[in-house]
Design brief:
Blueprint (H helix, E strand, L loop, with lengths): L9 E9 L1 H6 L9 E7 L1 E2 L2 E2 L12 H7 L1 H5 L11 E8 L5 E3 L13 E8 L4 E4 L7 H10 L8 E3 L5 E4 L5 E3 L3 E8 L5 E4 L15 H7 L17 E6 L3 E8 L4 E4 L4 E7 L2 E3 L2 E3 L4 E4 L6 E5 L3 E7 L1
Antiparallel strand pairs: 1-2, 2-5, 3-4, 5-12, 6-13, 7-10, 7-12, 8-9, 8-11, 14-15, 15-22, 16-21, 17-20, 17-22, 18-19, 18-21
Length: about 300
């Protein structure tokens, strides 16, 4: 039987990144580099997570998918033979590019639906999502060419605990000053429509994909709201046949019983015990489907995210 699995994070250099993963979670980061993403559980070409605990330490997620996929996934379908989800922590010191991910059936790329949960935010933190009511495709293209694109996109203030569901086709950008837990389909197709006129790490403008983005954007997607703030558990995102994400808040000493099935527990604040494992803020623990029911115990007041299908 597969045990609960922890993985070594994979830090990713990004022009908009910062250093808060070291400050908040004690991560060891490459010296002097802006680290925008930490890939916590990944089965992507060239970026496969390596198991950090237990008897399978040193094996990676690709090995699990090739040798024990049924025990790992249960009845959750793979993504064309890959692990179905990708988990990241984003440290946006600056605003990300305005971008969109292709919807299912798009003639190129991989569809990508995702969810953001704000773990930390500065006073002026924000995101952009969707379009303002009444903006047409022609108006959007005109404003893009004139450099006035911000007039087309809602700017949403953010605080810690806020969350946004981002179905494929939704225009979006994460603003600077935010640290976000991201849950997404196992995909890495992004079309940049605007990059705020900045240069990349090589000093040159980053590539834009305006024609693909214009074809992928859902122009009927206007003024999308943040996830409802109430409930315990609280639904952060519910993407049928892909994933469901819940926020659970546990008081010190309380427990949470999880039924069997493929799940990922991510600790936002506090500390959890799970058998002989202790999970700290930033930790992501994969619970294989074959594991059976699991009990979580909060060592202190704890906020966690639970992802399952």
């Amino acid at each position: 039987m597969l045990p609960p699995l922890l993985f070594h994070p994979l830090p990713q250099q990004r022009v908009w990144g910062g250093r808060r993963l070291a400050q908040l979670y004690g991560r060891e980061l490459p010296s002097g580099e802006p680290i925008g993403e930490s890939w916590e559980i990944s089965d992507r070409p060239g970026a496969v997570s390596v198991i950090a605990n237990g008897p399978l330490a040193g094996h990676d997620l690709r090995w699990l998918m090739e040798n024990q996929a049924t025990d790992l996934l249960g009845d959750v379908p793979s993504a064309d033979g890959k692990f179905p989800w990708l988990f990241k922590i984003l440290d946006a010191a600056e605003t990300l590019s305005l971008q969109v991910h292709p919807p299912p059936g798009f003639p190129e790329g991989e569809p990508k639906t995702e969810a953001w949960y704000v773990a930390d935010a500065t006073n002026d933190a924000h995101l952009f999502a969707g379009l303002r009511s009444g903006i047409t495709r022609a108006q959007f293209r005109e404003q893009l060419e004139s450099g006035q694109l911000e007039t087309c996109i809602p700017r949403v203030p953010l605080s810690a605990g806020d969350a946004m569901f981002l179905p494929s086709g939704r225009l979006h950008a994460l603003g600077g000053g935010t640290l976000v837990f991201e849950i997404q389909q196992n995909s890495d197709t992004t079309y940049r429509v605007f990059d705020w006129n900045r240069t990349g790490l090589d000093g040159r403008p980053r590539e834009l994909h305006v024609d693909q983005a214009m074809a992928a954007i859902d122009f009927n997607d206007t003024e999308p709201p943040l996830a409802p703030a109430e409930g315990n558990p609280r639904t952060i995102a519910d993407a049928p046949d892909l994933f469901k994400v819940e926020q659970h808040i546990l008081s010190a000493g309380s427990t949470l019983e999880l039924s069997a099935g493929l799940q990922v527990v991510a600790v936002v604040t506090g500390a959890l015990e799970m058998g002989n494992l202790t999970l700290a803020p930033g930790d992501h623990c994969l619970l294989p489907a074959c594991l059976g029911p699991v009990r979580l115990r909060a060592n202190s007041d704890t906020t966690l995210l639970l992802t399952r299908q």
